[in-house]
Design goal:
Elements (H helix, E strand, L loop, with lengths): L15 H11 L5 E2 L14 H9 L14 H13 L10 E5 H13 L5 E6 L3 H9 L3 E8 L5 E2 L1 H6 L5 E7 L11 H14 L2 E5 L24 E6 L11 E7 L2 H17 L5 H4 L2 H6 L1 H8 L5 H13 L5 E2 L8 E2 L2 E2 L1 H4 L4 H12 L1 E2 L1 E2 L11 E4 L4 H18 L2
Parallel strand pairs: 1-13, 3-4, 3-6, 6-7, 7-8
Antiparallel strand pairs: 2-9, 4-5, 8-9, 10-12, 11-15, 14-15
């Protein structure tokens, strides 16, 4: 009865383990949910600038707005990307969406014909693979190298290109690994796309949550030869996941921009407009750089401190190795499954939930082929996070062979 396009569509972030966690909660058990990057659930507050913007002009959001988004919000977004060094972005190149999730749906649907191939990183945030499959396309995975801090493997990328390749997805900063890609790597990826006439989709929603002064290079700053769709939003940088505030911008050759824009406009008109209430806050939020900087300030900011704690505590566990995240609040540690007698990463995650009431996501939920990883969020406050990871260590000690 249901569409066969749903056969390979899933989200382990809210999958079998998540629903089992809800069952346990309904039975009165307390579950520490380290599966979702949802800052508000861990006490991250709304910025005062956002609260003021919401309360001052809420009536302006009662009606439908422009299908691309409110003019003031699009002007602020265009100015933000211009300030990063992106050339030629105007308010007309901006589409405001209900989170990056809707932007991904619109972009992939606009680009994908049946059988088109999209190059995506492995591991990869499942949203993108799901959207590609729902649109009738094929996700083709290129490797990212854990030994080099999860940088993309250029040889793997080149080997995956075929005559059906339509687009290259870059997730930088990366979810689930927390990696920030080196500029030299990005330049080569851009060059490959230019040579093969491939569209670039660049998910950069964590660009303001970079740690330790690591430089972040927006893909669209690397040239004007490739049609580049950049995705961003306020869900993570301003801890506003529930407001569903996302957008995409188009840059590159004008003729290609016009062609894609026409398709995006058609799709956007079908859904009338995105949530107008969240659009009211965009100018003020983007101007409030102090709030986001306070989260990642070395030695002081919550995300900076808690990421460091997670990295250090995970690597104290014998049989677990974690690469330091350079951005965002995710770590993607590797676990020696055989040492502990687990059949798979999902077996580990389920038994951890059942015995310790800690919910994580198995790495296979992010298309990590070796099935030896899991993703954990570093969002609980320092002492709670430290205690949780030590509890994971105690759990593994009990299983050690």
């Amino acid at each position: 009865m249901v569409s066969n396009k749903l056969c390979d569509v899933f989200s382990d972030i809210r999958g079998e383990l998540y629903y089992r966690a809800l069952e346990k909660e309904a039975q009165g058990e307390s579950i520490l949910k380290l599966n979702t990057g949802n800052p508000a659930a861990f006490g991250f507050a709304m910025p005062d600038s956002v609260r003021r913007a919401l309360t001052a002009s809420v009536d302006a959001a009662l009606g439908y707005c422009d299908l691309k988004g409110m003019a003031a919000a699009r002007e602020a977004i265009a100015a933000y990307h211009t300030s990063l060094g992106v050339c030629g972005v105007t308010p007309g190149d901006v589409y405001i969406t209900n989170g990056v999730s809707e932007a991904a749906y619109l972009a992939v649907t606009a680009l994908c014909s049946d059988g088109d191939e999209f190059l995506v990183p492995a591991p990869c945030y499942s949203l993108w693979v799901n959207m590609i499959r729902l649109a009738g396309g094929k996700a083709v995975f290129y490797d990212c190298d854990e030994a080099s801090g999860w940088q993309p493997d250029l040889a793997s990328l080149r080997a995956r290109i075929t005559d059906r390749t339509k687009a290259l997805l870059i997730i930088n900063p990366n979810n689930p690994t927390g990696a920030v890609y080196d500029r030299a790597i990005l330049e080569e990826m851009y060059k490959i796309a230019a040579e093969r006439g491939i569209v670039i989709l660049s998910d950069e929603i964590y660009d303001r949550l970079v740690l330790d002064g690591v430089p972040h290079t927006p893909t669209a700053t690397l040239g004007e030869d490739v049609l580049t769709v950049s995705f961003n939003g306020l869900s993570k940088s301003h801890c506003l996941c529930g407001l569903r505030c996302g957008w995409m911008t188009l840059s590159g050759p004008e003729a290609k921009k016009r062609e894609l824009s026409s398709a995006l406009t058609t799709l956007s008109s079908i859904r009338l407009c995105s949530n107008a209430l969240m659009q009211l806050i965009i100018p003020e939020a983007l101007a409030d750089t102090a709030y986001t900087r306070s989260l990642v300030l070395a030695g002081e900011g919550r995300i900076a401190v808690q990421s460091k704690v997670a990295f250090e505590e995970l690597n104290k566990i014998e049989g677990v190795e974690a690469v330091k995240n350079r951005a965002a609040f995710y770590l993607f540690p590797r676990i020696d499954l055989a040492r502990f007698g687990f059949d798979s990463d999902k077996d580990f995650a389920m038994r951890l939930l059942e015995e310790k009431n800690i919910l994580v996501v198995a790495g296979s939920g992010f298309y990590c082929g070796d099935n030896r990883h899991f993703r954990i969020v570093a969002l609980p406050r320092e002492e709670e996070l430290r205690a949780a990871i030590r509890k994971i260590g105690e759990f593994l000690d009990q299983k050690r062979r």
